[in-house]
Amino acid sequence: MQADGSIAAGLGGYSVNLGQFSVAAVERAGHLATGLPLASFAGKSVLARQVHALVQRLARHGLLEYRLSSPRDEQDLVVIEPQVAEYWPQPAKLGDSDTVALSRFAYLRRRGNEMVLESPRAGALFRICDPAIAATLAALSQPRKISKLRRHAAPVNLDLLGLLLDNRMLIKLDAKDDDGLRENEGDGNLVLWDFHDLVFHTRSTEGRHADPVGGAFAYAGVIAPLPAVRLPWPGKTIDLRKFSTPGPISPFAKLLRERHSIRDFDDQHPVTLAELAQFLGTTARVLSEWKTGAGFDGGPEVTYSTRPYPSAGSAYELELYLAVLNCEGLARGFYHYDAGSHGLVAIDASAQQLRELAMAAEFAMDASGPPQVLITIAARFGRISWKYSAIAYSLILKNVGNLFQTFYLAATEMGLGGCAIGTSNIDLFARMTGLEFHVEGPVGQFALGRGRKPAIPS
């Protein structure tokens, strides 16, 4: 409680102001330490509305978890840990005649001394406290009618199953459904995803989980850092330096050596639209297109393109989205780069979303300000997973590496600065574009602009 009557929540040295509330609301909210039933503030009274507003604000900051307990002894059966900011428990309706099955993307794993149920499609993870629930989940690997599940399994809580269904950890099957629905789970784009690829995509980016991301030095107190250069293998070394050609190095070798990351930009002299057009044309423009067979009997004809960087199987699944923050000749906004026509198309993203994107990039780079142009590299996942099994997402990341180096070399040659960014928020991108995160989503980011020249000492 603050001196002005407002409430603040503190965690790990940070505090968040939650607004002003009545003394009665603060007293009621104090029970959140041990658990406050959702039904206790579901009414329309002034007190209920205040407590509901406070709880919603806590939830948006990821400061709540939800307990489902046994009515007999109040022991926790499941604890729900939100993974996305907007999560709120809303059980889907289920009846005895409904048939459900576990999603093929749901998985149980050990976390410390706990068992958790997760899915890359879910807005929350479920901490399983009762072994009988784990056994019920195992039974749901096959489609089960709720009525039969109640007869043959441990006591089943319909609220829990409804919460799992709402989180897409369970899917509901109709009588006419076959294994086709179990494969696509109501969305044909999911057929193209291997389990491990979708998990890797959601857990190695921001937006759909609540784990630490980035330079957390999680193992600094556990193991010493590895050396920058690997210790030589034992045995005789062939010294290659004596085979080096004397004289000046080639322009390309010079370009490679001059390449380095630029994190701070000269906002008094921003990159120009002409320079941006040259940069995109040099690095990402479609140079040619052609068609050929899929490579197996009866396969369809597939279209391909050529671009300035290499791509696995010539898939060229990567798309560029530009957050333009300071570019001479181009309005501030969010754009898609049409590599086929070499043009920019404006996307109707909000100013707040643009600021959020820029601030995240600034923080990730540990820079003194936002980039002039932030390029989000997104992937049309189905373009590459249609052909490749087990390695699709791995190939996408290799292609991102190819494009990063191409960006760096082009920026260096043009006298511009650039910096690859190690993370991106797939949920924010989905909100800005309206695209489902598993259809097309970020796999890399690159900051571009005119680098700030170092100060000359007087």
Structure explained in plain terms:
The model has no long low-confidence stretch (mean pLDDT 92). Helices cover 29% and strands 23% of the residues. Helix 1 (23-29) crosses helix 2 and helix 9 (273-283) crosses helix 12. It is built from 13 helices and 20 strands. The strands form six sheets. The protein has a six-stranded antiparallel beta sheet, with helices on both faces. By secondary structure, it is α+β, with helices and mostly antiparallel strands.
Summarize the SSE layout with pairings.
Elements: E1 6-11, E2 14-20, H1 23-29, H2 46-60, E3 66-69, E4 76-82, E5 99-102, E6 107-111, E7 114-118, E8 124-128, H3 131-139, E9 144-145, H4 146-152, H5 158-166, E10 170-173, H6 179-184, H7 195-203, H8 251-258, E11 271-272, H9 273-283, E12 288-293, E13 301-306, E14 318-324, E15 327-328, E16 333-338, E17 343-347, H10 351-365, E18 373-380, H11 381-385, H12 392-414, E19 417-421, H13 426-433, E20 440-449
Structural class: alpha+beta
Radius of gyration, rounded? 27 Å
Strand order of the largest sheet: 17-16-14-18-20-19
Kindly report the average pLDDT value.
Answer: 92
Largest sheet: 6 strands, antiparallel
In DSSP terms (H or I, runs of 4 or more residues), the helix count works out at 13
Strand element count: 20
- Measured by DSSP, the beta-strand proportion falls in 15-25%
Work out the helicity level: 25-40%
Measured between the Cα atoms of the first and last residue, the distance is 51 Å
Low-confidence stretches: none
Overall morphology: globular
